[in-house]
Specification:
The protein is of the alpha+beta class and about 725 residues long. The chain has 25 helices and 20 strands. The longest helix has about 45 residues, at about 515-560. It starts with about 40 loop residues before the first helix and ends in a 5-residue tail after the last helix. The relative contact order is 0.18.
C-alpha cells in the first residue's frame, strides 16, 4: 500500500528497523516479530503497551485476533464471542434468510445460546498460533532449477512443511512468500469448524448508505456483526453439533470504557490480503492501463446482469445478494484505484522511482553482475504474464456458471484423488475436502437456473472475444455438441446430493457420465491442464527473477537509509496511526460522524433506510454513557491514518492500551491507491465506533445478553 514496502526482520537482509523514517510512522503493515525493532516509533506514536507484549502471539492483544478466511475478527469474551463487520457475516445472514424470514432486512439476534444458528457452509474461525521463517526449507533443492521444475519442487517443499504442521490435530497451516519469494514464512492456526451467527443489526444499520456511501466520507454505517466459535466438549475442533460448547480463547479484547478522540493513537490488527507496491513500473502501467479497466467492465456487466434478472423478485434478490455485493464492492474499489492513480500521478511516480533504482544498479559493476540479468529476465517474464492475465480474466468469467464450476472442480478433485496426497496440486488435497464440500453446498441457496443460464450466456459472449488459440478447443466442441438447452434441462447437478456424490466418484465415472455439465468439464480438462503447465513454468521462472529483483530493492532502500516491510499477503499484521480527519482546498473532513448525520441522510428508502426503532431512539438523544464528551453526542464512524487493505475488513481497532474501540471496515475511495503507493495526504481508513455498536445493541436491539457477556456496564 505504501511508498516504502517494508522489510521482513531478517539479519541476513537488513539492520534494525529502528532507523526507519519517523515521517512514515503511519505507513506499514508490520509483522509481529518486528515490534521490538520499531519499539521507539511505537512509543513515540503513543503506544502504552510494552512493544514486546504487542508482538507476542501467546498474549493479548494479538492472540485474540482471528481470521475468517477473507475477513478479520477478534474475540471479545471468554465464551468465544467474535466481533467482525456486518459485510463479513453478510453471507451467513443471506444463507439463513428467506422471503418470509428476511434477516438481511430485519437483522438477527439470538435471544439465547440455543438460538444461535450455523453460519454459511464453509465458515471457519482461524486462531493464530505461530508465524515462523521457513525460507531455507522452501528453497531446498530448487537453487539450480527454473521454470516448471522449480515451481514443482518448491510446491513439494511447501506441501511437506504444511503436512508436518497439520499433523497436529485441528491445525490449518500455510506457507506464504514475501518479496516475490525472497523469503517464506509458515503461519499456523487452530481451525474451528463450528461457527454460529449470534447477532447482526438490521440491514438499514449494517449497510446504511449502501453502494452510494461505499468507500465514501462522511459515513454513517453500523458495519458490525457477531459470530461465536464452538468446539466439542473435549475442546477439539468439530463440525456443528448440539452438544458442542463455546470455545474458550487464550485471551479476549476488553471493551474500552472511553472511546477514541481526535489525535488519539490507534492500531489495527488483522490479516490484510494483498498489496502491490513491489511490482515494477511496467507492471503498474499494465494494471492501470489494461487489466483494471477490463476487470471494471466485467464486474459492471456482472452486477448489472444480476440486477436485471432479480428486479421485482425479493426471493431472487436474496438468493444473489451476497454474490452481487461482492461484485459491487470490488468494482467500486477499482474505480477508486483508477481515480487515485490519476490524482497522485502514480505511473509517473513509479517510472521515476524505477529509473532511479535501475540507475543505482547499473552504476556499480558488482551490483550489475549480481542483479542486472535478473532484472532483464523479470521484464521479459512480466510481458508474458501480462498477456496471460488478460486471457485469464476473460476466461475466468465462465466460472460464474455455478453448475459448470462445480462439475469442473469435482472432476479435478477426482483426477487428483487418484494420486498420493502429497503429490496432488494445492487446493485438492485431503485437507481441502471440507472447503470443496462447503462450496458445493452453498450453491443450493445462491442459485437460480434461469439466472445461472443467463450469466453463462453472457460469460460465453465475453470468452469468445479471445482469439481461437487462446480458447479451450475441447470445451468449445463439447458445448456446441451438447447445447445450452440440454445443459440446463438434463443436468442433475441442481440437486445438492448429486453434487456432493461427485466427490466420491473416480475419474472414470465422470468420463462415462451423461450429465451435460460433467461432460463439459471432462472435455475442458486437457486444455485447462495445458494452461496450468504454462502457468507453472512462468511461476517458477518469475520466482527466481523476482526474488533477485527484490533483493536488489532491499539493498537500494538500505543505501538510502530506508527500511522495507513486506507487501500484504494474508498473514497476520498490525498497523498503527492516529484518529484524524483531513483537509484540502475547499473541503474539510472532520474525524468523526455522529448520530445527526443518520437523521439527515434518512429517506426511508434504500440505501438510506435505517429502521424506525433506530430513528426513534436517535431522535430521543438518549445516548448516556455512549456519548463522546468532545462531540456531546453519539459518534458513529471515524477516520484514522492506519494502513489497511482488503482482508482487514472486520479488524479490531485498539487504543494505546490494547482495548477495543471499534472495527475497521473501509477506506476512502481516493485512498485505495495505497495498495500501490502510500500518500499520507489522502490515505484514510474508516472505522465504526464501538460506542455506536454498543448503543445500538443496548438501546435499539436489546442485545443485553451479549453486553453483559462482554462486561459492558449499562
Amino acid at each position: 500500500m505504501k511508498r516504502g514496502w517494508g522489510l521482513l526482520a531478517s539479519a541476513a537482509m537488513v539492520a534494525s528497523l529502528a532507523t526507519a523514517d519517523l515521517a512514515m510512522a503511519d505507513e506499514g503493515m508490520w509483522l509481529p516479530s518486528q515490534t521490538r525493532d520499531i519499539a521507539r516509533e511505537l512509543r513515540e506514536a503513543g503506544l502504552e503497551l510494552d512493544p514486546a507484549t504487542l508482538g507476542d502471539l501467546n498474549r493479548a492483544p494479538l492472540t485474540s485476533i482471528v481470521s475468517l478466511g477473507g475477513c478479520s475478527a477478534a474475540f471479545l469474551s471468554p465464551q468465544g464471542l467474535i466481533a467482525t463487520n456486518h459485510h463479513c457475516v453478510y453471507g451467513s445472514i443471506q444463507y439463513n434468510s428467506s422471503a418470509d424470514r428476511n434477516y438481511l432486512r430485519d437483522g438477527f439476534l439470538a435471544a439465547t445460546p440455543g438460538d444461535e444458528v450455523p453460519a454459511a457452509p464453509g465458515s471457519r474461525v482461524f486462531v493464530i498460533e505461530d508465524l515462523r521463517n521457513v525460507t531455507a526449507d522452501m528453497l531446498r533443492g530448487a537453487a539450480n532449477l527454473t521454470g516448471e521444475a522449480r515451481a514443482t519442487r518448491m510446491e513439494g517443499n511447501r506441501k511437506a512443511l504444511i503436512a508436518k504442521c497439520e499433523a497436529q490435530p485441528n491445525r490449518r497451516c500455510d506457507v506464504r512468500g514475501y518479496f516475490g519469494g525472497q523469503a517464506y514464512w509458515l503461519q499456523q492456526q487452530l481451525e474451528i469448524q463450528d461457527v454460529r451467527l449470534v447477532y447482526a443489526p438490521a440491514g438499514g444499520v449494517g449497510n446504511f448508505g449502501g453502494e452510494i456511501d461505499n468507500w465514501m466520507w462522511p459515513r454513517h454505517t453500523g458495519d458490525f456483526g457477531f459470530y461465536r466459535a464452538y468446539v466439542a466438549p473435549d475442546g477439539s475442533s468439530a463440525p456443528f453439533a448440539k452438544e458442542n460448547v463455546p470455545y474458550r480463547p487464550k485471551a479476549f479484547l476488553p471493551i474500552a470504557k472511553d472511546g477514541p478522540k481526535e489525535g488519539d493513537f490507534v492500531m489495527v490488527a488483522g490479516f490484510p490480503g494483498t498489496t502491490e507496491r513491489g511490482r515494477t513500473a511496467s507492471e503498474t502501467r499494465f494494471w492501470y492501463e489494461t487489466l483494471y479497466p477490463l476487470q471494471q467492465r466485467l464486474l459492471t456487466d456482472y452486477a448489472d446482469a444480476i440486477d436485471q434478472a432479480t428486479a421485482g423478485d425479493d426471493a431472487k434478490r436474496i438468493t444473489y445478494a451476497s454474490i452481487r455485493q461482492g461484485a459491487d464492492n470490488y468494482k467500486k474499489k477499482i474505480a477508486g484505484q483508477l481515480t487515485g492513480a490519476e490524482t497522485i500521478g502514480l505511473i509517473e511516480r513509479k517510472d521515476a522511482d524505477e529509473a532511479a533504482f535501475r540507475q543505482w544498479v547499473a552504476a556499480d559493476a558488482a551490483r550489475n553482475r549480481r542483479y542486472g540479468a535478473a532484472i532483464v529476465e523479470l521484464d521479459t517474464l512480466t510481458e508474458a504474464a501480462n498477456r496471460a492475465q488478460v486471457t485469464g480474466a476473460k476466461a475466468g468469467v465462465l466460472t460464474r456458471a455455478q453448475l459448470y464450476n462445480a462439475a469442473r472442480t469435482a472432476y479435478i478433485w477426482a483426477k487428483e484423488r487418484a494420486k498420493p496426497d502429497a503429490e496432488r496440486r494445492a487446493g485438492y488435497q485431503d485437507r481441502d475436502r471440507r472447503t470443496i464440500e462447503a462450496q458445493m453446498t452453498a450453491i443450493e441457496r445462491r442459485f437460480d437456473p434461469a439466472i445461472d443460464r443467463m450469466l453463462f450466456e453472457r460469460a460465453l459472449s465475453e470468452y469468445r472475444t479471445l482469439s481461437a488459440d487462446s480458447r479451450n478447443a475441447g470445451f468449445e466442441r463439447a458445448l456446441e455438441e451438447i447445447g445450452l438447452d440440454a445443459m440446463y434441462r438434463d443436468t442433475r447437478l441442481t440437486d445438492t446430493n448429486a453434487r456432493m456424490a461427485l466427490l466420491d466418484q473416480p475419474a472414470s465415472a465422470f468420463e462415462a457420465s451423461t450429465d451435460p455439465f460433467v461432460r463439459l468439464a471432462v472435455a475442458a480438462y486437457p486444455g485447462d491442464e495445458g494452461d496450468r503447465s504454462a502457468s507453472l513454468a512462468r511461476e517458477g521462472a518469475m520466482q527466481k527473477a523476482r526474488s533477485a529483483y527484490m533483493e536488489a530493492r532491499i539493498a537500494y532502500a538500505a543505501s538510502q537509509g530506508r527500511t522495507l516491510y513486506p507487501d500484504a499477503n494474508g498473514s497476520l499484521r498490525f498497523t498503527y496511526g492516529k484518529v484524524t480527519g483531513k483537509a484540502r482546498d475547499g473541503l474539510r473532513w472532520d474525524a468523526f460522524t455522529t448520530a445527526q448525520g443518520i437523521l439527515d441522510k434518512q429517506t426511508g428508502r434504500e440505501p438510506f433506510d435505517a429502521p424506525d426503532n433506530t430513528i426513534a431512539a436517535l431522535k430521543t438523544g438518549d445516548f448516556g454513557r455512549y456519548t463522546a464528551p468532545e462531540l456531546n453526542t453519539l459518534p458513529v464512524n471515524y477516520l484514522s491514518t492506519v494502513d489497511i487493505t482488503n482482508g482487514n475488513s472486520g479488524s479490531s481497532t485498539l487504543n494505546a492500551r490494547g482495548e477495543f474501540v471499534g472495527l475497521a471496515f473501509d477506506m476512502t475511495l481516493e485512498g485505495v491507491i495505497s495498495d500501490w503507493w502510500y500518500d499520507p495526504a489522502i490515505n484514510r481508513s474508516i472505522h465504526v465506533d464501538s460506542r455506536y455498536m454498543l448503543w445500538t445493541m443496548d438501546k435499539v436491539d436489546g442485545a443485553t445478553r451479549l453486553l453483559d457477556e462482554m462486561g459492558v456496564a449499562r
